[in-house]
Amino acid sequence: MTLSKIKHVRAFVAKGGGADYHDQVGQHWIDDHIATPMSRYPEYRQSRRSFGINVLGTLVVEIEAEDGTIGVAVTTGGEPAAYIVEKHLARFLEGRAPTDYEKIWDQMYFSTQYYGRKGLVINAISGVDLALWDLLGKLRQEPVYHLLGGAVRDELQFYATGARPDLAK
Asked: At what angle do helices 101-111 and 120-140 cross, to 10 degrees?
């Protein structure tokens, strides 16, 4: 089975929710008065938003195959991460087979060593990696857990976090 190659990589920012817990409509528990590295400064103790943690927003990554199939992922990082995805990382995907995921990841990671291996850069790489796995699963018409080796147990215990952890029930 020959799979479509990657045609295009897109990245954009979504506001008002998504992967960024701090960019939620209304109140959210994660913005309450809780300990953070900025708590040492009285003017920033009241909330995480007070020191700008919510300014970046949610990064959405779409990877489109030649046949029109689209893999999607969300992470944090906003506009700076979207810039990294489209201006730097996309070159390692476009025209390639989605099955080259190991080499693609290595090239994204090692090519970014000159400007960062944490924070925004890793968020951008993670978004691309997740969208690539989503695309591969859709192209093969298999759930991603099959691609990763298949089920190893009948049930899973999991920890759910997010803007609406109640939805995981």
From this structure: 170
Side by side, the strands of the sheet bearing 58-65 are: 6-14, 58-65, 70-76
Nearest to 39 by CA among 50, 30, 28: 50
Per-position DSSP letters for 14-25, written without gaps between them: E-SSTT-GGG-S
The Cα–Cα gap between 93 and 158 comes to 32
Q: Is residue 115 part of a domain?
A: yes
pLDDT in tens, 60-89: 999 999 999 999 999 989 999 999 999 999
**HSE of 82 in the Cβ direction (CA atoms, 13 Å)?**
15
User: pLDDT tens for residues 14-47?
Assistant: 876 555 555 555 566 555 666 778 889 988 887 7
Specify the number of domains making up the chain.
Answer: 1
* 33 assigned to some structural domain: no
| Owning domain of residue 126 | 6-20+56-168
